[in-house]
Amino acid sequence: MAAKFWAMATMFFITFLTSTAQILWKIGSESLEFNIFSIITNYYLIVGLALYAIGAGMMILSFRGGDVSSLYPIIATSYVWVSIMSIWFLGEGMGFYKWAGVTVIVIGIVMIGYGSRESKAMAGAL
After folding, report:
1. How many CB atoms neighbour CB 44 within 10 A?
2. Does the structure show a pLDDT above 60 at 122?
3. Which of 11-15, 54-58, 109-113 is the least confident region?
4. Angle 96-125/77-90 helices, nearest 10 degrees?
5. CA–CA separation, 88 vs 94, rounded Å?
6. Could you tell me where the DSSP H helices lie in the chain?
7. Could you give the CA distance from residue 14 to residue 11 in angstroms, rounded to a whole number?
8. Count of other CB atoms within 10 angstroms of residue 17
9. pLDDT at 109
10. Mind listing the pLDDT tens digit for each residue in 22-62?
11. How far apart are CA 87 and CA 56, in angstroms?
């Protein structure tokens, strides 16, 4: 089954959601003390967990719209989002090799997308 647009768009949104959760976890971890009160009152951690749960539910639904082999590679864009968000929200740096890695990830996602499309066309020709 070819991946439907809504399923692919949902997967991209999920990557943004879970990447935001990871940034919140990083912020929350800075003030984390390892006791139960500190954990349950750390709003950054709680919101991050909620975003991950929402993302998981949305992912389950989006898998109804296409093959896992076409949709799941989109999750790799999380690395791109986290890299960009870490610059904006955490003040982290990005050198040449990190940007090169992000570029390779994006190229890989595009190639997998085209490969999925090509394999669907070949299957239809048989």
Report:
1. 18
2. no
3. 109-113
4. 150
5. 11
6. 5-30, 36-40, 43-62, 68-71, 77-90, 96-125
7. 5
8. 19
9. 86
10. 999 999 999 888 888 888 899 999 999 999 999 999 999 99
11. 26
Q: How many residues does the chain have?
A: 126
Q: What is the DSSP letter of 41?
A: T
Q: How many CB atoms lie within 10 A of CB 112?
A: 16
Name the residue among 45, 41, 40, 53 with its Cα closest to residue 28.
Answer: 45
Quick count: other Cβ atoms within 10 Å of Cβ 28?
19
Backbone CA torsion sign across 97, 101, 102, 107: positive
51 in Cβ contact with 24 (< 8 Å)? yes
For the record, the structure tokens of 50 come out as 């909620």
Residue whose tokens read 């003390």: 33
Residue range 75-89, pLDDT digits in tens: 999 999 999 999 999
Instruction: Indicate the pTM of the whole model.
Output: 0.82
Residue whose token pair is 């003030």? 31
